[in-house]
Structures are given as structure tokens and as C-alpha cells.
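Quick note —
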Amino acid sequence: MSNPNIVLATTTLYDSMENPRLPLALKTIAAAKACGYPFVVGDDSPKEVWEAIRRAGPNALHQAQKGMGPSRRHALRLALVLGGSDCIIVWLEPEKHTFVPLIDEVCAPFEEDPDLDLIIPRRRSLESYPPMQQLTEELGREGFRLATGCAFDSWFGPQAFRARVASYYLNYAGPPDLWDSIHVPAAQIIKAGHKAKEVVVDYQHPPEQLEEDTFPDYQKRIRQLATLSDALANNL
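Predicted structure written out below.
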């Protein structure tokens, strides 16, 4: 690990030990440990799932608050406590274990530029994603560009930011306070004039996480697209 001030944060919620996403989260925690990153996990799963995550060994495991936005903010607060006022916080979805080895590469520009506050990594290709997800994410990225003026890969999910701009995430309250709880603060940071950039990475989506293109998946993607589009319009 090139930068000792990096702290990872995520939240988890799995209904049972049989949930196919749980092993991916455990792989993410293991990858973080292997790379030496402190990791905060907020979990609101049943007790046996909680214990499995605890045994995987995150540096801080806490009972997530109810609701996507509140639980994410609580995890970020603990990451800030763990890392201190000079830390870099990396938010990532718990199942993206293939992203963890790329974090040093993503965060390297922070060491080179003390004025840089936000990095949104860009996937070199979306070919490892289902076609339906590719389409909706392209539309979502275009909406982010229109709202902020920056053509970033905003729908990837992971973000890295300095502690000094954490207040944008911690003070956000929606509505609707779902996926937008990470998405919109990044846009607000950019709109406020803070320096932001993207770093292109060769990310491959975990094949275990791929969802087949089905009508329910189509509906979910459209709902997410509409939710984040409305949130950008209402909170910028």
C-alpha cells in the first residue's frame, strides 16, 4: 500500500448466509486486509451474517442505521474517525472485490496534487457488465455530465475523497436518500469548485455478481436511473 492514510468504507445487508452476494463481500474484506487497508463495514444483516462478516476481520464493524443513506453516512463518519483529518476515504460497494487491488492506482494522484479533493475512477470498458446495465449507465453518466459539466464515470460506484470534503457526504439528506447519498455529494463537490479528476482503471466486474437481462432487472435499472436523475435535479 503506497498511501497509509487510505481508509475504505462500505455497508452490507444480506438476508441470510445463502445470499450469493455475501461471499463477494467476504472476498472484498479479505482483499482489503491483504492490501493493508483499514476497512469500516456497517452491517444490518441477521446475526449469523454479522458474525461471518466479523470473522472476516474488518477494522471496524458496526450496526448500520436503518436506511441506505443514514447507514452509509454512519460508515463514513467512522472511517473519518479511524483515518483522521488527513485521511483519504474510499467508498466502494461491498461486492466489488476486484476493485480493491486497483485502489493504490486510483488514489496515487492525491500524493501528487495537494489541491485534489475527489477522484472518480473510470472503467476502461463496460464489456464485463450485462447489456441492459451498460445502456442505463451510459444514460446516467450523460445525466451527470449535463448536471456537473464533468463527463466522469459517475455510475461506477467507487469514489475516493479527502477528509476535508467529507462534510458533503455527511450533511447530505436527500431526498430520496438512497443511491444518491454517494452520487449527489460528488456532484456537489464538483459544482462547488473543488478539484476533481478521474483515473482510468482496468476493472473487471466479478462474474458472480452479473445479473441476467430480465424484465425485473430492466425495471430496477430504470428506477435507479430515474431516482438519481431526480436527485441531481433536486439537490444541485
